[in-house]
Write a structure and sequence with these properties.
The structure holds three protein chains of three kinds.
Chain A lengths: L13 H23 L3 H9 L4 H32 L10 H35 L8 H20 L27 H29 L12 H33 L12 H34 L7 H14 L15 H29 L8 H23 L2 H7 L3 H31 L5 H27 L16 H30 L41 H8 L11 E4 L4 H18 L2 H19 L5 E4 L1 H10 L1
Helix pairs in contact in A: 3-4, 3-5, 3-15, 4-5, 4-6, 4-8, 4-13, 5-6, 5-17, 6-7, 6-17, 7-8, 7-9, 8-10, 8-13, 9-10, 10-11, 11-13, 11-14, 13-14, 14-15, 17-18
Chain B lengths: L1 H39 L9 H4 L2 H26 L3 H31 L8 H34 L3 H35 L1
Helix pairs in contact in B: 1-5, 1-6, 3-4, 3-6, 4-5, 5-6
Chain C lengths: L2 H23 L12 H34 L17 H28 L13 E8 L2 E6 L4 E4 L1 E5 L4 E7 L4 E5 L3 E6 L5 E5 L5 E7 L12 E6 L1 H12 L4 E2 L1 H8 L8 E5 L4 H10 L3
Parallel strand pairs in C: 1-5, 4-10, 11-12
Antiparallel strand pairs in C: 1-2, 2-3, 3-12, 5-8, 6-7, 6-9, 9-10
Helix pairs in contact in C: 2-3
The chains are: A mainly alpha, B mainly alpha, C alpha+beta.
Chain lengths: 649, 196, 286
């Protein structure tokens, strides 16, 4: 009746249970607050059913922040274990548990922090920067978010009911086959990724059409802000890559559930096929993660240098080159699988080529600063951190793209250090920079600058302390995913240094949390009354902080790049135009409900409660049909309403 | 109200573009399954091969049915464009029946294989065959459900700009599935029977 | 310079010193940089040369970033300010061109060394190679010597200066066979036979492990690789042949059972077709 689910499925491991309980308590606390302050209606109307990309963007950032915190706790636990689990001591974590932690850490960071940053930023910034009032498919945008949230929820449910996969964030068969992993852990991993992946695909389609079809008059592709270009390239990658993930995970699921033999070691299966397919998605994925960060830095460097971005056209071509190349390099993730010298060499050379356009971007950023007026506010500090950390990471990446070198560093901590250099240095620092930069726009007040600086320095130093030792450890022969090692190896001092680094990072996080609390407390003193706290260049700074829900009362018309900067320089006021009725979508809870059905469906599939899975699937289908048959999904904001709102702000 | 019509036109073009993009992602999904089939089609693990299992004439029958359904779908859309509701419903009805016939044939082929002991659990080749062709079948099923919903919707509300764009997407979907089937027919059945 | 920045730099430098001390203290244990075999030596040299070549671009990039951010900071009155300067064909040519040339140079090296250091390529040596078959199990390594007719677990010995022809498979999830001081790794996969060709320059004891995660007991999947003189090797083989343990298809089934932190074990090989059987098990219906 309940498939594999039983009373003994509830976790008894004290650490996991404690984590799960604290999450449940936090959720209960939030719910109690809502009852106490009678804010249910507000939550529903303003947030849960909202199709406003600004609101959806904030929700993405909230989920991302929660998952980042969870992923960092995972990291602290791993470093703590590896710092003490030497010789006779086996640390405080059992091997199985340690393995679930690193698997959850990777899945959380890539899918729920990385992709959360990507779509959060797109939601918040793209419509404003292209002079649009909305996105192309507001309902799909909402559905994409709620599927993302359901994926995150599913991952966290595994803390309390059942277990998560212990096979790594990208578990290869045969390890992830039923034979070696019959428990529900791998299934939790599969369905978490599937639900989140479908959400990403839906959101990706939405933003691609938004950029192509909803730019304001005069904004040709080559007049778009560079952030929008980086998102456009990111979206092309999403469209082409995510279906591969969906198909591959589905095939692994079929192997596990229906006894198929796609990736079996025997029966005519081919595990190497999984490796190829998963990395055919996996490599574009890492560029998906980094492109918005590149865009964010481009905006920030230009704004804080009071100067045009250097080499805009070159930057666009660099993005296009990286996009194209990212599809023909996937094999560098498994040079050691034995594909032969010529195949390895080809993919190695293709991988190296990507370094060229990436380097071009770095030099264009540098030359944006040259002969500019550089203000080293917190966003710029994050850029400087990125410039050094990402470059080091990039260099080690090119190093590993030499197959014969890779044979000595593949799957070692050298690899771990490389990708954390580029992901933390690039994606995470980009997110923090963007967060600090655009926070005033959406909340109406600036963040405390001093605390921001402290946060940056602890993150920067902590990062270097946590990951530079890993480069050395890798060269000492330490592989990834080890929960124990010998004294004789000489690795412990470096692991201890890495653990110190993670603690410094957590202090940085504490400063970030403190920054938000203090900034909220001091918000009246730091109000952004002009809508343009940084002397910005692009259209989002021409609105109030926060903008009205329709963004622009009058659709802007642009003639060149950095239109707001031009407008301020020329001092000319645009001739006042007449207001017209604005066409906006109505709120709807359908995205939330359909995602809820997806939660029921995926949970049931994991536990093999097939009748309930059918209910979930049918529910999702029926609700989808109902919503897509609804002709009454939009409304008009009348001119008088617009006038009222505009006069108030 | 010309503004409203302008908005409708804009929404239509966005919707159709968005649906094209979705179709592209579906192409990538099928491409992944085709690639897997290409790698695994010789892995019979001692079981039957494509040559021994498939009947090219049976598959040809399925192909002709599906091609005809694409044609009738086209006729339905022409009728819709001319706002001829009854004609449109009739042609979609025929398309629907042809789609059901196609599915019926496919399920018959699958159940025959399973009864003989050649299910998806037999070998890597059969796993990839059932999944590739089965995924197409699942898409056809979704298309048929969609078609039924649209026929009811148009029956009740008539043909309006807002549901015309949905019909446009449906017909795009149906033709796309036909193209995928042509590829399946060629790569799986024809090449299977010829090369084994 | 601001006080916080000074303090931060101090912390950074301190940590860098700590790291440097640890590295130099233990530099002999940085296996990849302390090769004991020809293959590992070539790989290390390649790593060093590639790094140096890349530093040609990387060092200026990082240095310029900080130098220019400092030089053109807003409160530097002396710096020139040209807010509309956004293009330079010369600059673009330089930073598209020079990195591209460097990549071309590296690409040639990649092509050459990928072939030269292909794990499947036998070594060029007058000495007769020794054939060792490797099976990744859960969670230990089995070494089969088909010609010497012995087998070992978590220990492999061979004579110095002799080409080692490893044939590798798995009877477990995917693993990776790695002896860092002798050369790079290659995956061990069920139903497949990968190859690795290594050679030890002198007697010594080297660490080996699996570099691809394969489940609960993964961390304990270490082994010792020992290079000895020819004479010592022959003596060792003779002593192992006297082992009371025999390895055949039946006793292999015992070994297949999952176990962690296995001690070294030594067997007389009763069935020298065992390795082939392990592979064929996955290829044919039983």
């Amino acid at each position: 009746m309940f498939g594999k689910l039983g009373l003994d499925s509830f976790t008894r491991n004290p650490i996991e249970f404690g984590a799960g309980i604290s999450m449940v308590m936090a959720a209960l606390a939030a719910i109690s607050f809502l009852f106490y302050f009678k804010r249910w209606k507000w939550l529903g109307k303003e947030w849960l059913t909202s199709l406003d990309p600004k609101k959806i963007g904030v929700m993405y950032v909230v989920v991302t922040a929660i998952m980042l915190f969870k992923g960092l706790i995972d990291a602290v636990m791993m470093r703590a274990q590896q710092a003490v689990s030497v010789g006779d001591s086996y640390g405080y974590l059992a091997s199985d548990h340690f393995q679930q932690i690193f698997s959850a850490h990777g899945a959380t960071m890539i899918f729920f922090v990385g992709m959360g940053v990507v779509f959060g930023m797109m939601n918040l910034i793209i419509p404003l920067q292209i002079g649009a009032r909305d996105v192309a498919f507001p309902f799909l945008n909402s559905l994409g978010f709620w599927l993302f949230a359901v994926g995150a929820l599913l991952l966290n449910i595994s803390l309390i009911i059942g277990e998560f996969s212990g096979a790594g964030w990208l578990g290869y068969p045969p390890l992830t086959s039923m034979e070696y992993n019959p428990g529900v852990g791998v299934d939790y991993w599969i369905w978490t990724l599937q639900v989140a992946g479908v959400g990403s695909l839906i959101s990706g389609i939405n933003f691609l059409v938004t950029i192509l079809k909803m730019r304001c008059p005069g904004m040709t592709l080559m007049k778009m802000p560079i952030f929008v270009w980086s998102c456009l390239c990111c979206l092309i990658l999403i469209i082409f890559a995510f279906p591969i993930l969906t198909a591959t995970l589905a095939m692994l699921s079929l192997d596990r559930f229906l006894g198929m033999h796609f990736f079996s070691a025997s029966f005519g299966g081919n595990p190497m096929m999984f490796v190829n397919l998963i990395w055919a998605w996996g490599h574009p994925e890492v560029y998906i993660l980094i492109f918005p960060a590149f865009g964010i830095f481009s905006e920030i460097v230009a704004t804080f240098s009071r100067k045009y971005l250097f080499g805009y056209v070159s930057m666009v071509w660099a993005l296009a080159a990286i996009t194209a190349l990212s599809f023909i390099v996937w094999l560098h993730h498994f040079f050691t699988m034995g594909s032969g010298a010529s195949v390895n060499a080809f993919f190695g050379i293709m991988t190296m080529l990507i370094a060229v356009p990436t380097g071009v971007k770095m030099f264009n950023w540098i030359f944006t600063m040259v002969r500019g007026k550089v203000y080293l506010a917190t966003p710029m500090l994050w850029f400087l951190g990125f410039a050094s950390n990402f470059t080091i990471g990039g260099m080690t990446g090119v190093l590993m793209s030499v197959p014969a070198v890779d044979f000595q560093v593949h799957n070692s901590l050298f690899l771990i250090a490389h990708f954390h250099s580029v992901i933390i240095g690039g994606v995470l620092f980009g997110f923090f920079a963007g967060f600090t930069y655009w926070f005033p726009k959406f909340f109406g007040f600036k963040l405390n600058e001093k605390l921001g600086r402290y946060a940056f320095w602890y993150w920067m130093i902590g990062f270097l302390a946590a990951f530079m030792p890993l480069y050395v450890l890798g060269l000492m022969g330490a592989t990834r995913r080890l929960d124990h090692y010998d004294h004789a190896s000489g690795w412990q001092p470096l692991y201890v240094l890495a653990a110190v680094g993670v603690l410094l990072i957590m202090i940085g996080v504490a400063f970030q949390v403190l920054q938000i609390i203090i900034s909220i407390r001091d918000r009246k003193k730091n109000l952004d009354t002009t809508g343009d706290p940084w002397d910005g260049r692009t259209l989002e700074w021409s609105t109030t902080s926060p903008p009205p829900f329709y963004n622009f009362a009058i659709t802007p018309e642009v003639n060149e790049r950095d239109p707001f900067w031009i407008k301020k320089q020329s001092g000319r006021e645009q001739a006042k135009k007449e207001y017209k009725d604005i066409h906006m979508p109505k709120n709807t809870p359908m995205g939330l409900f359909i995602a809820g059905c997806a939660l029921i469906f995926s949970f049931s599939m994991i536990w093999q409660i097939f009748w309930l899975a059918g209910v979930g699937a049918l529910g999702a289908l029926v609700l989808l049909i109902i919503h897509l048959s609804d002709d009454d999904t939009d409304y008009y904001v009348t001119v008088s309403e617009i006038e009222q709102i505009e006069n108030r702000i | 109200m010309t503004e409203h019509a302008e908005i409708q036109r804009e929404v239509h073009s966005k919707t159709v573009l968005g649906f094209w993009v979705y179709v592209m992602t579906d192409c990538v999904l099928f491409a992944t399954l085709f690639a897997t089939y290409a790698v695994l089609h010789g892995n019979t693990f001692g079981g039957p091969s494509a040559k021994e299992l498939f009947s090219a004439s049976f598959a040809l029958g399925e192909t002709l049915i599906l091609l005809t359904s694409s044609f009738t779908c086209g006729l339905a859309m022409l009728a819709a464009y001319r706002a001829k509701k009854e004609q449109m419903l009739a042609w979609f009805g025929i398309t629907f029946l042809l789609g059901c016939a196609f599915l019926g044939m496919e399920l018959h082929e699958f159940s025959d294989f399973v009864k003989e002991g050649n299910s998806w659990q037999r070998s890597g080749f059969l796993s990839s065959f059932f999944t590739l062709v089965g995924t197409h079948g699942v898409h056809i099923t979704c298309g048929l459900i969609w078609m039924a919903v649209m026929m009811i919707q148009v029956g009740i509300r008539g043909i309006k700009p807002v549901n015309f764009k949905r019909l446009a997407c449906l017909s795009l979907f149906w033709h796309f599935l036909d193209v995928v089937w042509i590829l399946i027919f060629t790569i799986v059945y024809l090449m299977g029977v010829v090369n084994g | 310079m601001k006080k916080t920045h000074k303090f931060a730099l101090f912390i950074l430098l301190s940590l860098a010193c700590v790291l440097a001390v640890i590295i130099f203290w233990d530099s002999s244990r940085i296996d990849v940089l302390n090769p004991k075999g020809l293959i590992a030596l070539k790989q290390r040299n390649l790593l060093v040369i590639s790094t140096l070549i890349m530093l040609i671009v990387v060092v200026p990039a990082i240095v310029f970033t900080f130098v220019f951010a400092w030089k053109y900071r807003s409160d530097n009155e002396k710096a020139k300010y040209t807010p509309n300067w956004e293009n330079s064909i010369l600059a673009e040519c330089i930073w598209w061109g020079i990195p591209f040339i460097i990549i071309v140079v590296l690409s040639v090296m990649v092509w050459k060394t990928s072939h030269e250091l292909d794990p499947f390529k036998p070594l060029d040596s007058p000495t007769k190679p020794i054939r060792i078959q490797v099976v990744a199990l859960q969670w230990k390594w089995l070494f089969i010597y088909p010609e010497e007719k012995i087998a070992t677990v978590n220990f492999v010995q061979f004579p110095e200066k002799t080409p080692l022809n490893f044939e590798i498979t798995s009877d477990a999830p995917m693993n990776s066979f790695w002896i860092p001081q002798l050369g790079g790794q290659i995956y061990a996969m069920s139903g497949m036979r990968t190859k690795l060709h290594l050679i030890a320059d002198a007697p010594g004891i080297f660490n080996g492990c699996s570099a691809n995660f394969s489940g609960t007991g993964f961390a304990g999947m270490k082994f010792i690789a020992k290079a000895s003189t020819e004479a010592d090797f022959d003596a060792w083989v003779s002593s192992v042949k006297k082992s009371p343990n025999h390895l055949d298809a039946k006793s292999y089934k015992q070994l297949l059972k999952p176990s962690i932190n296995n001690k070294e074990a030594f067997y007389l090989l009763s069935d020298d077709g065992l390795f082939d059987q392990i592979i064929m098990k996955y290829m044919t219906p039983m």
